[in-house]
Amino acid sequence: MLQADGGPEFKAEFKQHVLEYADRFRVSAPYKKNEQSFIESFNRSLRKECLGWSKYTKRDLPELEKELSDYLVYYHTRRAHLGLGLKTPNQFLEEVSDY
After folding, report:
1. Which of 27, 78, 82, 99 has the most CB atoms around it within 10 Å of its CB?
2. Mean per-residue pLDDT over the chain, rounded
3. Same-domain status, 65 and 22
4. How many Å apart are CA 80 and CA 91, to the nearest integer?
5. Domain boundary among 37, 52, 67
6. Are 39 and 4 within 8 A, CB to CB?
7. Rounded-to-integer distance, Cα 30 and Cα 32, Å
């Protein structure tokens, strides 16, 4: 599932293509801090650690897709997360499966 915060970058053309990359698409409800905080935190991490704050052109897409794919693997397996006690998801899963 892909969840977005309903910002203007998620309108029109984005909605037409989202299901090419995810089984479901959900727009979080405005002013629901539990939904928005996760998205905002992820977006901040993505910008800060991967994409930066530059504007990109269509010519940049192939390189950005590769960078994004690599970053998502890193984010979901090897990056320490505050919500997991500063453990990586892999470390957390190992501990949970030991019980």
Report:
1. 27
2. 85
3. no
4. 9
5. 52
6. yes
7. 6
**Helix, strand or coil for residue 31?**
coil
For the chain, the domain total comes to 2
94's tokens? 């190992």
The DSSP 8-state label assigned to residue 35 in this structure reads H
- In 76-91, which positions are buried (b, 16+ CB within 10 angstroms) versus exposed (e)? eeeeebeeeeeebeeb
pLDDT tens figures, 22-59? 888 888 777 766 767 777 888 889 999 999 988 999 99
**Does the predicted model carry a pTM greater than 0.85?**
no
Domain enclosing residue 82, as ranges: 54-99
Give the Cα separation of 81 and 75 in Å (integer): 9
Same domain, 42 and 73: no
